[in-house]
Design brief:
The protein is an alpha/beta fold. It has a domain of about 220 residues: FAD/NAD(P)-binding domain (3-Layer(bba) Sandwich), CATH 3.50.50. The protein has 11 helices and 21 strands. The strands form 4 sheets. Strands 4, 6, 7, 8, 15, 16, 17, 18 and 19 form a 9-stranded mixed beta sheet that branches. It has a 6-stranded mixed beta sheet with strand order 10-2-1-14-21-20, sandwiched between helices. The relative contact order is 0.22. It binds flavin-adenine dinucleotide (FAD). Flavin-adenine dinucleotide (FAD) binds next to helix 1, strand 15, strand 19 and helix 11.
Length: about 400
């Protein structure tokens, strides 16, 4: 079975990897280079313990209006508001306890296989940089610490992982680079982190070594249908014959799904990062600054900080003011001398739908077109388990985990 996988990010590559592992012939089609999209400059956390949907109970129109402030961690660009309004109203409809619990349980279901799948990739010989040092979350004020702790405990209860409360002294013992005043901390010891570009490079190399076709610099522009089936993927470099298709083009998956007759309300949740090579000081483990919602990650020879969720449409425009604000906060909270001036700046588009759950399964409009997207802030965490589950569904009719909550039919 020849399966065209559209998109060479962490989700498309993981899907192609598991399709190949189960005996299919994946053909990866990527408009730029493998791993060059959102999968490139992200924080790389593999974090089942803090995996939850974004809509939370208590989000009011008033708190949505705070998101129009340029320094808000979740920012809505005012000029994008008219086109985003229907999406935001749907997002708001999920801000309740029932949907939050349902979403946490669904994501935890996939995450039950996350570490097993990561271990499997490593055992198969896929090469990537991986660390098992947990994640430290720190807070200056008790309200934010209590709210985060409540959410983390909901997730850890559903995912059978655990977290530990830390005293101020324990916070500084774990991370001496923090500026004074972080009186509250949580440590989630089971979480890991990977260097995301090493993961996409490793998956790409494994696919090529196994004989899979990989087409880079090749944009998918349409499909050739025969009745309810897609027979050909039309690209900027000609047509590729296929038996089935997986759409895994990140934030661009919505427009591809429309070409295959199905609407998915997908937008981009933009995030920014700064990567400093050979930093003067290095963190002991990934660090989450709870108040500002900024994540910092130590990799071999580099340090990255990242954050913000900006809704401003599907484009990679970089908002200089938001990068400046990210740098200012990190320099104020952590002893990183290069925070205010150094490093490489990056913007990425997280694929995100209103309930912020992944979208996985067959499109109702075609008999052989599947989708794997919408992994919001969790694409690196969920990639191997999502790729494995979708490949299982496609080739064996058994995803190995309940995918009902992720069905494209819900839109
Ligand atoms: C600042 C930031 C920090 C993050 N931190 C984390 C984290 O710590 N942990 C975590 O789990 N997740 C994190 N994420 C989220 C994670 O990066 C994403 O969920 C994930 O990368 C999405 O992967 P993807 O493969 O769906 O999309 P992408 O990586 O964007 O891949 C999609 C690919 O499809 C290609 N494409 C698009 N259109 C076409 C077309 N027509 N034809 C062919 N190819 C096409 C694109 O070029 C792209 O390469 C973070 C994101 C950001 C922005």
């Amino acid at each position: 079975m020849r399966v065209g996988v559209v998109g060479g990010g962490v989700i498309g590559l993981s899907t192609a990897y598991y399709l190949k592992r189960l005996g299919a012939d994946p053909v990866v089609v990527e408009s730029a280079a493998l791993g060059a999209g959102c999968s490139f400059g992200n924080a790389g956390w593999v974090c089942p313990s803090i995996s939850s949907p974004l809509p939370a109970p208590g989000l009011t129109l008033k708190s949505l209006s705070w998101m129009l402030r340029p320094d808000s961690p979740l920012y809505i660009r005012p000029t994008a508001l008219p086109s985003l309004a229907p999406w935001l109203l749907r997002f708001r409809s999920f801000c309740n306890h029932t949907d939050q619990k349902r979403g946490i349980a669904a994501i935890a279901g996939l995450n039950r296989f996350t570490m097993e799948r990561y271990d499997e990739l490593a055992a198969d010989g896929v090469e990537f940089e991986c660390h098992e040092s947990g994640v430290l979350m720190v807070f200056r004020d008790s309200d934010k610490a209590a709210a985060a702790e409540k959410e983390v405990k909901l997730v850890t209860a559903a995912s059978a992982t655990s977290c530990t409360d830390l005293t101020e002294a324990e916070v500084y013992e774990r991370e001496p680079m923090l500026r004074p005043g972080f009186r509250f901390g949580l440590f989630v010891g089971g979480d890991r982190h990977v260097r995301p570009d090493s993961l996409t490079a490793g998956l790409g190399a494994a696919l090529r070594a196994g004989g899979a076709e990989v087409h880079e610099d090749t944009r998918v522009t349409g499909f050739r249908d025969e009745g309810r089936r897609v027979r050909g993927i039309v690209t900027t470099k000609g047509e590729l014959e296929v038996d089935a298709v997986v759409l895994a083009a990140g934030a661009h998956t919505g427009s591809l799904a429309r070409m295959a007759g199905w609407a998915i309300p997908l937008t981009a949740g933009k995030g920014y990062s700064v990567t400093i090579d050979e930093p003067r000081n290095q963190l002991r483990q990934p660090l989450f600054l709870g108040g500002a919602k900024i994540g910092l990650t130590p990799f071999e020879g580099t340090l990255r900080f990242s954050g913000t969720m900006e809704l401003s449409g599907i484009n990679r425009r970089m908002d200089v003011a938001r990068i400046r604000s990210l740098r200012r906060i990190v320099g104020r909270e952590v002893d990183i001398p290069e925070a205010s001036y150094g490093g490489r700046e990056w913007v990425g588009m997280r694929p995100i739908v209103p309930d912020t759950l992944p979208v996985m399964g067959k499109l109702p409009s075609r008999d052989n077109v599947y989708v794997n997207t919408g992994h919001q802030m969790l694409g690196v965490t969920l990639a191997p388990s999502s790729g494995w589950a979708l490949a299982g569904l496609m080739l064996e009719g058994k995803p190995g985990v309940g995918l009902g909550a992720f069905s494209p039919e819900r839109f």
